[in-house]
Specification:
The protein is mostly beta strands and about 180 residues long. The chain has two helices and 14 strands. It is globular and about 50 Å long.
Length: about 180
C-alpha cells in the first residue's frame, strides 16, 4: 500500500515534467522529422521543499525511509492550478488521450488524478470541448467508473534517484527531489 508524504506548504515549489518512451526520429539525409509515440508516458514532479520545523522534517524523513524499507510507492498530494472542482466523473480506455467527462468547471491546465486498482494516476487537461476532454499523458489504466479528483490530485511513484536526507538539512535548508510515476 502506498505511503502518503506529508502535505506540501504553500511555499514549496513544484514543477511538472513528462516522461516519454517515444521520441523524434530525425532523417540523416534532410527528410522530415517523425514523431514516434509509444504508450506508457507518465508525469514526474520536481519538488523543492523549503526549510521546515523538526516535527515536519521527521515526518518527511520517516515516510521516505519507510517507502524504501517496505518497497512501497510514495503518494504526494499536489496543489491544484486554480480552484479545485468536485463531482466529476469520466470514462476512457487505456492509451486514450481524449476522455468523456461529466460535470462542469474543467479548465485547461488543471491536473487531476483517479485511483484504479489501488494506484493513483495523474493527468493534465490540455483541451476542453463540451464533454470531451483532452489529457496528457494518455491513460495508462481504464478510468471508466472512477471519479476524477480535481480537489486533491495525487502523484504516486518513487523518488527518481538516491537523495540524501537529514534532519539538519530539512530543518535549515530544505530539500529537492523528483518523484516519478511508476506506472
Amino acid at each position: 500500500m502506498a505511503i502518503t508524504l506529508p502535505a506540501l506548504s504553500r511555499f514549496d515549489q513544484i514543477e511538472f515534467s513528462e516522461v516519454e518512451f517515444g521520441g523524434y526520429l530525425k532523417s540523416t539525409l534532410g527528410g522530415p522529422t517523425q514523431r514516434v509515440k509509444r504508450p506508457g508516458g507518465r508525469l514526474s514532479v520536481s519538488v523543492d521543499l523549503r526549510p521546515m520545523n523538526e516535527t515536519c522534517a521527521r515526518q518527511w524523513l520517516g515516510a521516505r525511509m519507510r517507502s524504501k524499507a517496505e518497497g512501497e510507492t510514495l503518494r504526494l498530494i499536489l496543489r491544484q492550478n486554480g480552484p479545485g472542482i468536485s463531482g466529476i466523473s469520466g470514462s476512457g480506455a487505456v492509451n486514450a488521450s481524449v476522455i468523456s467527462a461529466s460535470g462542469s468547471g474543467i479548465k485547461v491546465g488543471q491536473i487531476f488524478s483517479f485511483i484504479a486498482g489501488g494506484h493513483a494516476y495523474l493527468h493534465m487537461v490540455t483541451n476542453v470541448a463540451g464533454g470531451s476532454v483532452n489529457i496528457a499523458p494518455s491513460l495508462r489504466a481504464n478510468m471508466s467508473g472512477h471519479p476524477l479528483d480535481f480537489m486533491t490530485p495525487t502523484i504516486e511513484g518513487f523518488i527518481e534517484s538516491p537523495t540524501a536526507w537529514s534532519l539538519t538539512q530539512l530543518k535549515h535548508f530544505g530539500q529537492s527531489f523528483v518523484l516519478i510515476e511508476d506506472r
